[in-house]
Predict the 3D structure of the following.
Amino acid sequence: MRRVTPRAGVAPALLLLGLLTATLSTRAFADTPPLGFAEITGSSGQLVGVASFQRVADGVEIRARFQALPPGVHGYHVHAVGKCEAPTFVTAGDHFNPTPMEGLALNELPPPKEHGLLNPRGPHPGDLPNLVVGEDVTASMTTIVKGATLAPGNFSLFDGDGTSLVIHEREDDQVSDPAGNSGGRIACGVLGAGPAHDLNGHMFVNQPLDAQRTFRSAWGPYAPEQWALERDVYIIAQRATQVAGVQAEPPAPQAEPEPADED
C-alpha cells in the first residue's frame, strides 16, 4: 500500500492558522467583561450598597450587600438604561426587557414580556425577587438575571445603553404591569466592568491574603462586597474631611492589652 505523506509546509500552515484563530478568540473574549460591579446610591447621593455581577450557566448572577436602606420588602429590578440621576432615578428607564430577535423576521417577533415573576405573560428578564431589608437596615442577596449575558448580544447587560440596578420603595407584587406596584425608585447603581473594587479602584482580589481570609471568614461569599462597602464608607468620609480642610484620620489601631501582673 502506498503511504501518503503530508507535503512540507502544510503542518506549519495549519499551526499558524490555529494560532491565529486562538488569538482572535482570545481578543474577542478579552473584549467581554467577565465580571461587573455597581455602587448603589440613594436619592440623596448616599452610598447604600454594592453589587457584583458574574456570568453563570443560565444567565448573570448578582451578589449584593446593602446598608442604610429602609427596613421592609422592596422591589428590586435590572433597568434598561445605565443612568442614575437622583432623586427619582427615572433616567434608568424601564425594566430590562429585550425581545429575542435572532433568526426571526419582524412579523415573527414575540410580544414583549409583561412584568412579574408570577405573571403568566411574564416575566421581564430584569425582574428579580424582592429585596428584604432587616431592622438593622442591612441586607444581602444573590439572584440571577435569567438569560442575560455580559457578552455582546441582544440580552447583554453591557449593551449600548448600559443597565442599572434599581430598588423601589415598596414590595413588588410580581404580577402588576409594569413594575408590580412597587412605588418610586429609592436607590440606583450603574453596572460597570470589573471585579469588586472601592471608589479609588483598589480591588478586593489584590488585597493581602490575610485581609481576604478575615473578610471571607466573617462574610462568606459576600466578603468582596462587604470589603468594598467598608472601604467606600472610609473613602467618602476621608474626602468629606479634606473638602472641609481637615485631614482625615486613618482608622486608629487597637490598644495593646495590659501585661498581666506577675505573682
About this structure: The longest strand covers residues 47-56.
